[in-house]
Amino acid sequence: MADARMNRQVLLVSRPQSEASVDNFRLVETPLPPLEDGQVRVRNHFLSLDPYMRGRMNDTKSYAPPQPLDEVMIGGTAGEVIESRNPAFKAGDRVVGMFGWQEYGTSDGSGLRVVDTTHVPLSAYLGAAGMPGVTAWYGLNGIIEPKAGETVVVSAASGAVGSVVGQLAKAAGCRAVGIAGGEEKCRYVVETLGFDACVDYKAGRLYDDLKAAVPDGVDGYFENVGGEVLDAVFARMNAFGRIAVCGMISGYDGKPLPMKAPALILSQRLKVQGFIVSEHMDVWPRALKELGEGIASGKLKYRESIAQGIENAPQAFLGLLRGKNFGKQLVKLV
Ligand code: NDP
Predict the structure, then answer these.
(1) pLDDT given for residue 274 in this prediction
(2) pTM above 0.90, yes or no
(3) Domain 6-127+302-332 is classified in which CATH homologous superfamily?
(4) Which phi and psi angles does 110 have, rounded to 5°?
(5) Alpha-carbon distance 89 to 113, whole Å?
(6) Is the CB of 186 under 6 A from ligand 1?
(7) CATH class label, 131-278
(8) What crossing angle do the helices spanning 206-213 and 227-234 adopt, rounded to 10°?
(9) Is 298 exposed, middle or buried (0-12, 13-18, 19+ CB in 10 A)?
């Protein structure tokens, strides 16, 4: 374990030319300064690793500014207050924040949220009961607007967002169909998460297997992946179908996306809408309440891939970009 007075941090030190690599990151140790009035210090227990971080590594125009070089990598964190000179927090509080890839976070408390871990584990606040869960909730309810009896398809179905999308669609009375990479992920999606079917896009029969899994076509598609998966689902869209464009991870890590699908938007009169979850803060309280209740009652299931130690954050992040995670990717620090 690190010395209590030292903070281990992972910095972004260079930008990838194509695929990201561990050389883009550097682990450093810095002394923790004494706490000032109004400040709170948190021992991070979990880092959230998320696909959006790959976009921040590039210096390109986007909805968010790039991650500055030689600074701590951005990211969601969940941990415990160990020292507080801020009346809103006390030692022992479990908190969720955005301290990034480091063992300790120090701040004035803004953006830090105390969470109740009686019924919902701390780590879940970075997954199904946190940003990925709200993403699923918003894209499904706010854009796809599922009706009972409809078919909803979601890609990256075993992941943090996708797993919640399918379970919420099922609860809304829909046929929920996942697309995931590999037999094991697909088995989990059907047997544990309760989807009606799951298509293994790595089996080499994507188009035919999808067609068989959606006999009545697709009314709602929650897009997480892009590329050939998006093309295949587009081809099965029903008239007046809705597509929530949430992410296109297959194009994030230096591989341009082939785009054949857009012509079908017109021919099938599709509603295709992109969104960014942090621009819909109004829905967060309701979504978090419903998701937390689902987890506490055991109805909403989720899975985590947990890497150990801050030094393994870069490798785990690259694994996430290559589909090596199985469920929400976290790094455990304590
Ligand atoms: P996941 O837990 O789903 O992990 C990423 C998964 O993507 C991998 O496990 C892999 O699963 C899948 N994947 C599919 N195709 C590829 C490919 N070509 N290369 C690599 N991985 C691939 O991540 P999240 O649930 O956190 O995120 C899912 C999507 O949602 C991402 O696109 C992300 O950017 C987006 N997102 C968007 C937000 C928004 O506000 N718009 C907010 C949060 C997330 P498999 O093995 O099944 O292929």
Answers:
(1) 84
(2) yes
(3) Medium-chain alcohol dehydrogenases, catalytic domain (3.90.180.10)
(4) -70, 140
(5) 9
(6) no
(7) alpha beta
(8) 40
(9) exposed
> How far apart are the CA of 294 and the centre of ligand 1, in A?
22
Domain ranges of the chain: 6-127+302-332, 131-278
139 Cα to the center of ligand 1, angstroms: 14
Q: Is 46 helix (H, G, I), strand (E, B) or coil?
A: strand
Residue 26 CA to ligand 1 center (angstroms) comes to 25
Residue 278: pLDDT above 50?
A: yes
Give the CA distances from residue 121 to residues 87, 134, 298, 304, in Å, rounded to whole numbers and listed in that order. Answer: 25, 17, 12, 12
CB of 185 closer than 6 angstroms to any ligand 1 atom: yes
Other CB atoms within a 10 A radius of the CB of residue 33 amount to 11
The answer to whether residues 144 and 195 touch, using CB atoms and an 8 Å cutoff, is no
Query: pLDDT tens-digit profile of 20-54?
Result: 999 999 999 999 999 999 999 999 999 999 999 99
Phi, psi of 244 (to 5 degrees): -95, 110
